[in-house]
Amino acid sequence: MPGVDGFMYPNEIELQWSVLIVLYPFLTGLVAGAFILASLERVFQVEAVKPTYRLALLTALSFLLVAPLPLQLHLGHPERSYEMYLTPHRTSAMAMFGFVYLWYLMAVLVLEIWLDYRRQIVLLSQSSTGWKRAIYSVMTLGSTNISERALAIDEKAGWLITVIGIPSAFLLHGYVGFIFGSIKANPWWSTPLMPVVFIFSAMVSGIALVMLLYMLITWARRQVIDMKCVDTVARYLFYIFVIDFSLEMLDLIHRIYEADESFRSLDFMVHSKLYLSHIVVQIALGTIAPIALLGLTQVAKLSDIARKRIYAAAGCLTLMGIFAMRWNVVIGGQLFSKSFLGYTTYKMGLVAREGLLMAILLTILPFAILWVLVKVLPPWPEASSGSIPDAEPAR
């Protein structure tokens, strides 16, 4: 039984949304952010980030496959979830997620990856043997024409799909903020800036994750880290992070200026139950610190090794801060009573359907899927040519 202070209604003592609902927007945010990074090269012609293009797409797919699992585990009868497709409820933002998810997965992300890899898949289906040949043959979907004209059509179609995918990525994650922001009964959530903040924080987290993965995988492969690529990714991460932080501060200033009847309760929450997760982890360590580190690389002339270490630290702090933001929104918004006279606490179990262990497993699962995808569809530019040039090991 959670600890309760003051007056709370009986249905408010136990939290309805657990750590899995924290994990869900965190995972979808990584998907949207990774896809936006990929679009920088495909649509906006930022050639410097090309080494991360395929890795970003595979990362987005890996996390997108796992994203609905927290919701499935949270449902009392997950076997009924397919009914949203059979009996669509168009007035429910939560129900419409199923259609947004299916559209983004099948019509955007999977199709773009297939078009980008089609030439490589056809070549591998011809050069591989045994079970690998069978897998790649199935992946060709019967399309084995890799003439220059056919590949040019693939390129144009892939570009168009990416253009469509950018607003789709915003819609995929923005609707999560829309759900929270439209709950008028909860002053912690009810703000029109919530969808916008969710979208920008998603871009921040996804870009930071792909940057970290690129540096880690390149180091593990004993290849040279393209510093021009990492510098460019870090620069975009810095710009978007500044916008995200500005929006959050704008929302905070508006709340302080408005100071309605809920302000005293929310202020007490921030200075007591959420002080560590909100002030220390989200703002100090997860926002100000990485922005300062990334800003340092923009104004100071540092060595490659120093910049790599700063990027690694900033990326890890960023992911920690964005997860804390999701925690503070989901869990923090349930810790106070609608009467503003009472407060409760959230106790997370260790081994349970919605416990800590399950949350850890769901966090690790996308990386396991990414490992398999990287083995099947290598994202390295030299993989399609069949040769790996000699290179100095990454430092």
Please name the CATH architecture of the domain at 18-231 and 348-379. Up-down Bundle
Level of helix content?
55-70%
The CATH class assignment of the domain at 18-231 and 348-379 is Mainly Alpha
Unreliable stretches, pLDDT < 50, 5 or more residues? 384-395
What is Rg? 22 Å
Broad shape:
globular
- Strand numbers in spatial order across the main sheet: 1-2
Structural class per helix/strand content? mainly alpha
- Strand and helix order: EHHHHHHHHHHHHHEH
The fraction of residues in strands falls at under 5%
Q: In the CATH scheme, what's the topology name of the domain at 18-231 and 348-379?
A: Formate dehydrogenase/DMSO reductase fold
Give the beta-strand count.
2
Mean pLDDT equals 86
Describe this structure in words.
The chain has 395 residues and is mostly helical. It has a domain at 18-231 and 348-379: Up-down Bundle (Formate dehydrogenase/DMSO reductase fold), CATH 1.20.1630. It is 69% helix and 2% strand. The protein is built from 14 helices and 2 strands. It has helices at residues 10-13, 19-42, 53-66, 69-74, 83-86, 93-127, 130-139, 148-181, 194-220, 227-258, 263-270, 275-299, 304-330, 356-376, and strands at 4-6, 342-344. The chain is globular and about 70 Å long. Mean pLDDT is 86; it is low at 384-395.
